[in-house]
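[User] I wish I could look at a protein chain and see how it folds. I have put the entry right below:
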Amino acid sequence: SSAVGEDSEQASAAGQYETILNVTSREMLRGAIASIQASYDNSQAVQYRRQLGLPEDAMAVLIQKQVRGVFSGVAFSRDPIAQQGDAVIIEALPGDAAQVVSGQITPEEYRVVVTLADNVETQIASLQDTSLQIEGSGNVPPTIIKQVALLARQLENRYHGIPQDIEWSYDGETLWLLQ
């Protein structure tokens, strides 16, 4: 799902709208689309929008290849709590992204400082930069955490310095940007 206004400076509607995985037929796809669109009007989502004073708008349904994640998570190109500094905050777990974005499981948290002096494009190309220090520990390999941090900052740079939050998954070979 991707409701208009779902993610903004005023709101983050994570978990408010339905997401359906493992769709394997046209019939299932039709039902999934209808369910996702209907989730815009569920009482919890309506109450959420009212509490934040958000306008009633529309729901888009995104259809994409499902990535079977070995490690997955979300990343914030800037610390959303401190709202200052050069830290990229990454929340991750082994497995697919659904368990992280559902909010039902507490993910591992990592913090990676990527300074303005760092050449993000060069670092992404080489991924050998050992100057990126990771705070936090868990099951996700440090190389993947660094890749995610650099991707988040690269997207922020692409979008005129506006902080970004992303969903990502690593399938054992490729790091995928999901949203």
